[in-house]
Specification:
It is built from 3 helices and 2 strands; from the N terminus they run αββαα. The protein is an alpha+beta fold and 70 residues long. The protein has a domain at 15-62: 3-Layer(aba) Sandwich (Glutaredoxin). The chain has a two-stranded antiparallel ribbon. β1 (33-36) and β2 (39-43) form a beta hairpin. It starts with 15 loop residues before the first helix and ends in an 8-residue tail after the last helix.
Length: 70
């Protein structure tokens, strides 16, 4: 089965207005930030903790995203 992968990255560091806007939008003071299917998940520290606890793969799976395994 062929699965389409959609992702988008935005260089918020190159534009002060975008950088401050994303912080205000998420009500989160730091970047990078992870959004999954339009939903804010957290900043780098939260995402790292979720990954280490196995929660990130669970979240991705619940959103219909298959996590890559190494």
């Amino acid at each position: 089965m062929l699965m389409k992968t959609w992702y988008k990255s935005v260089d918020v560091l190159s534009d002060l207005e975008v950088r401050e806007g994303i912080k205000a939008f998420s009500n989160w003071p730091t970047i990078p930030q992870l959004y999954v299917k339009g939903e804010f998940v957290g900043g780098c520290d939260i995402v790292r903790e979720m990954y280490q606890a196995g929660e990130l793969a669970t979240l991705l799976s619940s959103k219909g995203i298959e996590a890559a395994t190494i």
